[in-house]
Structures are given as C-alpha cells and as structure tokens.
Amino acid sequence: MIGWVVIGAAVVLGVPAAMYLIQDSLLFYPQPLVGPGPASRTARPVEELAFEGADGVRLRGWLVKGAGGRTPLLIYYGGNAEEVSWQAAEPWPTDWSIALVNYRGYGASEGKPSERDLCADSLVVFDALTRRPDVDRARTVLVGRSLGSGVATYVAAYRPVAGVVLISPFDSMVAVGQRHYPWLPVGLLLKHPFDSASRASAIEAPLLAIVGRRDGIIPSEHSQRLFDAWGGPKRWVELPQADHNDLGAWPQFWPAITAFLDER
Fold first, then answer.
1. pTM of the entire predicted model
2. Rg (CA), the chain
3. Which of 32, 100, 229, 244 could form a disulfide with 215 if both were Cys (CB 3.0 to 4.6 A apart)?
4. Looking at beta carbons, which pairs linking 214-219 to residues 24 or more positions away fall under 8 Å?
5. What is the number of alpha carbons within 13 Å of residue 45 lying toward its C-beta?
6. 46-52: strand order across its sheet
7. Taking each helix axis from N to C terminus, what angle separates 173-180 and 220-229, rounded to the nearest 10 degrees?
C-alpha cells in the first residue's frame, strides 16, 4: 500500500513539475530564417531592420515599404511557430508599409523568447518604427496572429494606435492552457500568462477580430471573451469552416482586413 501511495504522489507531483520545466518548449517554437527573406517574396522595396532590446539582444527583421513617401504602417506579430518573413508574399495593401520583425530566438533575432521579453521588445520596436520620417505614426495598425495577439494587445495597451487586427486571438494563455490541460493547475504553473483580457477594457483603439469557428487550438469562445472585454469599437468576423492555421485561405479573410484598413 505504501508503495502505491509513493507512486501516486510521484505522479501527482512529478507531472506538474515536468510541465513547468518544459512549458517554454510547449509555448514557443522558434523557427529559423530559410532563404534570403522578404526580398525574394515581393517586388516591393524591402529594408533590413535591426533593433537592440534593453538587455542588448539584437532583433532583426524587415520593413516592406508601401507606395509613396510617408506611409501608414502595419506592425505584424506572428504566431508561436512563425518566422515572419513569409508575410511579405501575402496580399497586404500596397499603400501600407509592413514591419516584419522576428521575436527573439526566431529567424536571425538573438536570445530566447519569454512573455516579458517579447512585450518589452515590442515597445522598443514600436517606438523606433514610429519615429521614422517615412512612417505616418497616426496611422499605425497592429496585426497579431495567435500568440502574437497577446503581444499586439500589450502594445495597444501602452501606445496609441489607429487600430488592431487580431487573428485567432485569446483571452489569456492560462484560460487556453486550462482548457487543454484540465487536470493541471495551469494558473500556478504558467510563467507566460499573456493575460490579454485584463488589458482589453482600457484599449480604445478599434479592433477587428478574425476567428475560425473550427479552431481546435484557440476555440472561438476564448476569442469571444477578449472581444467582449475590448474597450474600443470592434468588429467580429467568424469564418465558419476555418481552423486555426487556414484562415487566410478563406475568401472573407483579406477583404475584411482591407476594409478595416481603408477606414483608418
């Protein structure tokens, strides 16, 4: 009997301990840069970017330039397994510039990702980009996909922006994690809570939320909770047949983004 008690205790304590230790690898999937980057994926002018985080870590990315001298700006925040250079091939409006900067540990950016560092880096990048003379700061829009919705929401809570586009967003990583691991005390274990819902009510910027009804990674209820908490004007676009990774393939996706940007 004592032996079974010991085994049971080891399981009860060991599984949460193991999940705590490996959580970074479950949440972040840094991807390398493959190929030369956006310049090979678009005919638009591309400028290489480099930024230095508060701790000296170098972040690297690109500015895909819009047509004209002083252009509105999109800042894109990718998902947890996304090296962002491929976004240069997507049909973003050509009169907007788009900044594609890889998180630390992703692409050619140095360091190791964490919520604290990604959020701190995002403010450094935002401030540097919006100081540029070729950027119309008043027309800066944030675009966050999946994990990146947490980063975009953080920036919108601390910087004025013209709008926010969130693709497969979530209320908090704790809530999503608890849904997938109901037998674990996720709230006690998670080092990277990305609690977007707690910030949303104070954000006055207009929101476009695009979600897939069949999303099995971030079920639409979690997106709905963030949407409901948002303090500014908001628009909900739900794609009935879409899952987590295929939203851009559905015909409603890009027209919704273009219409939202045309209003900014």
1. 0.92
2. 19
3. 244
4. 214/240, 214/241, 214/242, 214/243, 215/168, 215/242, 215/243, 215/244, 216/243, 216/244, 217/146, 217/168, 217/244, 218/146, 218/168, 218/169, 218/170, 218/176, 218/244, 219/179
5. 9
6. 46-52, 58-64, 97-101, 71-77, 135-145, 163-167, 207-212, 234-239
7. 160
Q: What secondary structure letter does DSSP report for 142?
A: E
Which amino acid belongs to residue 29?
Y
Residue type, 142: L
Rounded to 10 deg, the angle between the 115-130 and 147-158 helix axes is: 60
For 168-184, the pLDDT digits (tens) are 999 999 999 999 999 89
pLDDT in tens, 85-132: 999 999 999 999 999 999 999 999 999 999 999 999 999 999 999 999
Give the span between the Cα atoms of 51 and 182, in whole angstroms. 39
11, 182, 242, 254 alpha-carbon torsion, rounded to 10°: -100
Give the C-alpha separation, 174 to 41, whole Å: 36
Task: Give SS3 for 151.
Answer: helix
Pairwise CA distance, residues 223 & 217, whole Å: 11
Range of the domain at 33: 2-262
Question: What is the biggest distance separating any 2 CA atoms in the chain, rounded to whole angstroms?
Answer: 77
**pLDDT tens by residue, 138-159:** 999 999 999 999 999 999 999 9
DSSP state of 81: T
